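This part of the workshop introduces the protein records we will be handling. A record pairs a protein's sequence with a compact description of its fold. Backbone structure tokens are a discrete shorthand for how the chain folds in space. The question running through the whole workshop is how a given chain folds. The record below serves as our worked example for the rest of this section.
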Amino acid sequence: MGATAVPRIGGPRVGAPDVPRDAARELSLKIAPFEGGFYWELPSLVSIEWDPHIESECDIGCVDSLWEQKLPALRDLRLDGILFNASDIPLFLHPNVVPFVKGLRTLSLPIRAVTNREEVVAHLLAHAKDLEHLDRLELTNVRFYDALGDTTELFQRLPNLKLE
């Protein structure tokens, strides 16, 4: 994905000079997460690749404001980095995550961002109906979870799932 000038993100400008807000279709971020409460006026945005570019582990909560964005054209989201879920609440139980994901075609994120190793398969199975519409659900950094247990039912219910 090519770099795109970033129109107004939140109140102040972030990044390159202003471009018409309807012109931004792809956004590739290699920056630390924004403070909470930011907003994006990017109605034509189709794709986001976001690597928080943090050298140590970072809680998935650092992108909580992303789930609150109104991005009607967004279809592809890729979150990279060493993100994990430090919360007692698995990712798809956060109130804004499932509605946000419903509009996507592809979702890629580190497996540890979902929930802990012991609960990840059960959590994904519990939310299979919320994820089955995706053309591709990619969970990355699986190497951090040495054993996921029996994934047979998971792959049957989510044939779109790829573990990387």
